[in-house]
Structure formats: C-alpha cells, structure tokens
Amino acid sequence: MASLKFLGRIVVAWFAAWCMLLVLFGMFDWHHGDLPWFVTLAWFVGLLIALGRGVTHLYRVRTLAGRIDAETLSNRQRRRVEVPYGADEAFDIVDAAIRELPNVQDIGGTRGGLQIRAVVRLLPGDTPRRRGLPQQGLDRNTRVTATITPSDGSSSVMFVCEPDSSAWMDWFNPDGGASLEHVETLVRALTQRLTERRNRERADVRQTAMEKELTAAQLGLLQAQVEPHFLYNTLASAQELVRTDPARADRMLGHLIDYLRRSLPNTDGSLSTLGQELERSTAWLEIMKLRMGERLTVHTEVADDIAAVPMPSMMLQTLVENAIKHGLEPKPGGGGVWIRGRVEGGALSLTVADDGMGFRSEGSGTGIGLKNLRERLRLTYGATAAFVIGNNFPNGVAATITLPTKGVNDHA
Questions:
Q1: Which of 256, 294, 302, 295 is nearest to 277 (CA)?
Q2: 111-122 pLDDT, tens digit each
Q3: Cα torsion 123, 125, 126, 131: sign
Q4: Crossing angle of helices 2-27/37-65, nearest 10°?
C-alpha cells in the first residue's frame, strides 16, 4: 500500500504539472490551449523517468531498511543518536564519522555552534552518466547536517540527510534512497566508533587493574628477596664460624655478599635471565651447604647455551627455597636438590625437585611464595606460561615452570 501511494503521488504531481502547463498555454491562447507536441513528449518522458526512479527508490529503500513506510520512503531523513560524552568529544567523533562517508566534500563545522555540514556527491553507479559528462538535471547531491546538543555529561546528535534541492522537487524526483543510505551509514559509523571507544576504555581499566596487581606482586617480591631470618641466621652462623673455622666463615660471607649483590632488583623492571637466576640460587645454596654440611647435595643440569633465556627474577629462587625449607631441612639426614632446565619447541622448562619430606599437612608454610609466583606468571605471560607442582618419585616434590622463549611481554 505504501508503495502504491508513493508511485501514485508521483503520477499526481506530474499530472498537476500537466494541468499547470495547460493553464499557462491557455492564457496565451496557444492554438486554443493545445500543447505543442514537443512539450507533451517532454512531459511524458519526464513522467516515465520519474516513475522509473520511483521504482528504483522503492527497491533501494526495501534493501536498506527492510521495510517500506512513510518514514523510510522520505527523501529527507533524520536520526538521533545519544552519545555518552561531552560536546567537544562528541563533535570530534561525529566529524570523523562524517569524513568517512564516500564522496563527501565541502565539510565545514563550527565547534562553538556544535554543528557540522557536508555535501555527498552521488556515488559512482547510482546514475547512468559517464565520466566526463555533466550531471543530469534530475540527479541531486545529498546535504548532510549534524547538530550536537549537550546535556549533563553527555550529548545528543541529530543527523539530517536531504537532497540539495527544494522540497517541492521531492514530488517529482525521488532520490533513489540516497538520503536513507547516508543517514544509516552515519548511525552505524557513529555506533561503531562509540563501541570501539568504550572497548578501549574498558581495556585501559583492565590494564590499570593488571598494573596494580603486578605492582602488588612486585612489592611482595621485594619483601621476599632477602628474607630477614635467612640473613640473621647466616650472619649468626658466620659469627660462630669466625671463632672455630675462619676459612669456612670467609666462604660463607663471600657467598652471602654474592647473593645479596645478585638479589638487587632491576630498576627498569625488565626480565632477568636464566643464567642470572641460576647464579643467585647457586650462591644461596652454597650458603645452605655451609650451614647444613653433608646433609645437602645439589645437582644442576642446565646447559650454558640457554643461560640467556629471559625469565622473571626470583622465581627459581622461590622454588629452591621451598625445596630446602619444606623438604630437606625437616628431614633427618637431609637430601638432594635437582635443578634441570631445557628449551624445547620455543619454551623453557625449568624444574626444581627434591627427595625430602614431600607434601605434609602440617608445617608446610603459608603458600604465599607460590601464590605470588603464579600471579606473576599470569600477569607477565598470560596463558602462555604454566606452573605445575606434584610428588617426586620416590620421595619429595617436583615443581616445573614452563615459559615461552619468544614474544615475551616485558612488563615495567
């Protein structure tokens, strides 16, 4: 019904024009009111062209909007979009959306007046004209106007798309759905830009939260880098050895100095290397060997050619300390610690195992060290790193860290 009314309106408009021509020619007594044949022919050709453009208009409107009614059939289209930003930000977003329209030109706007105007030429292929030929008289460009109305912390944008001719021409010459196409394109473009902006804001919030979590984990790391009890016990042992075994005391203090020097945090927050972490843990283990004597044996299986592989600091140290404190120190007679590292398939696999007491229900520590380790792995590598801890055969515990060797995200 809407389609028939639309085409009927065109026919009525052209017949009204025919009547006007008859009246005008009758006033001048042109052959007793008869129209010249060429005027009749021009009127008839114009009517056919208008009906053809009307059918094209109906087809494009149904294709673009999926429906045909008075709103979609109009040559002059209006759309309102709510923007959750202030007027200045909304102005920039709308201006960028308008500039992405195909064949847009003559873009002008007044930021103070919060209005943007532009003209969109007919798209190539919309009319049968050839390149180099002038635009046909029935073809019209589209005027685009965007008006921004500020509100409390937000804005409202009104898009208006209409032909660049007088409104009375709409009765004779449909625009082929150009205004509808342009206004729908603007609404989609603005919606997409708002969605992208909100996604970026949410990503920034998540990044800020991750940075806070990483900072908290790093603070916990700094607090754990030099455990006070370890330092006090080592100094007390060295003080006692000074009186009984000066040479051994000298070795213990030398290892302590080496350990403390290697435990200083990186000021730039960059990753350490497997070689540096192994040297730190070796210095710590040498101190423990001097304190535990023959109760502790250390086995290291790490090739020199993978020493430069990057990894977070203190992770290896955490696993070594857990093996000694919770596995070997409580065990009568002590035991051994194994450190194995290898690179396969672009991943570093680092294992610390012991033959100590294994998992126990009492006296097994607070678990803060391993919790921080898992959190730092998640923040630094995401899902590309893994940490597994389980029983060692036949006794003790084995813990393995798997890290990517390429594409590492070096957090500051």
A1: 302
A2: 888 999 999 876
A3: positive
A4: 160
Q: What is the pLDDT of residue 298?
A: 93
**Do you know the residue count of the chain?**
412
Distances (CA, A) of 334 to 9, 280, 393: 101, 22, 16
Name every residue whose Cβ is closer than 8 Å to that of residue 320 and which is 6 or more positions away in sequence: 281, 284, 285, 337, 339, 352
Beta bridge partners of 386: 402
State the pLDDT at residue 144.
Answer: 93
Query: How crowded is residue 42: how many other Cβ atoms within 10 Å of its Cβ?
Result: 13
Q: 3-class SS at 302? A: strand
Torsion of CA 359, 363, 365, 367, to 10 degrees: 40
CA atoms of 138 and 163, how far apart (whole Å): 11
What local confidence, expressed as pLDDT, does residue 269 receive? 56
Best CA proximity match to 86, nearest among 145, 149, 179, 168: 149
CA distance 188 to 190: 5
CB atoms within 10 A of CB 179: 24
Residue 266 is predicted with a pLDDT of 56
Neighbours of 167 (CB within 10 A): 10
Helix %, strand %, coil % for the chain, to 5?
A: 50, 20, 30
Predicted model pTM: 0.47
What pLDDT, on a 0 to 100 scale, did the predictor assign at position 181? 86
- DSSP three-state, residue 111: coil
The pLDDT score that the predictor gives to residue 13 is 77
pLDDT, tens digit, 9 for 90 and up, residues 243-264: 888 888 888 888 888 887 776 6
- Cβ neighbours of 135 (radius 10 Å): 12
Bridge-based pairing state of the strands 296-302 and 335-344: parallel
Q: What's the pLDDT band for 127 if we cut at 50, 70, 90?
A: very low
| Residue 191 Cα to chain centre, angstroms | 17
- The band of 348, judged by pLDDT with boundaries at 50, 70 and 90, is very high
